[in-house]
# Entry
Amino acid sequence: MSNIKVKVCGVSNPEMVKQLLKLELDFIGFIFYKKSPRYISNQIAQDLLSVDFGNTRPVCVYVNPTRDYVLETSSYFDNPILQFHGEEPESFCDSFNLEYWKAIRVKSSSSFSETLSYQSAEAILLENHKDGLYGGTGEAFDWSLIKDHDDQIKKIILSGGINIENVDNAIDTLPWCIDLNSGVESSIGKKDIELIIDILKNIKNEH
# Structure
């Protein structure tokens, strides 16, 4: 039985949220970035005010947001985690009195040095680097790079193109958490509950 935590990110449908909560996921991510095909509007987020997340933590995902936007959108959830994907400095990320995760776009082994600038982060999310894109590339980076740096990073969240075919390799990197997004969709932005159930079985039954 694996103790790797699981997050499904990019959920924008309240009904899907309710289905995912039945699976007792560790985290569900909501993307507050208007350029994302998985963007969740304030109106939809308000619909979630009455939803009991139980032991599942909501994660609010941002790219270079204003302070007011973070305060407004994170207020829809009880005790959310903030996840930053842009060039936000540590002082900004750490100024909301909430746990935060910082995403690092991995291009080469030197990319990991960026983690040193976010000592207050609860966890570091590793994703594929693509020029001009913030997350959501749907592609994996060279996961073998992690082995040389895992002792420097307290909690690694592995993301980027993880699906049923490569999830075993993802598990082998021994991350703290696996972030599922495009790899569990039937079409862009539309989560597939069957794909999610199948991949969860792989993750939870490994090791």
In short: The beta strands are 5-9, 27-31, 57-62, 81-84, 100-106, 123-128, 156-158, 177-180, 185-187, 190-191. The chain has six helices and ten strands.
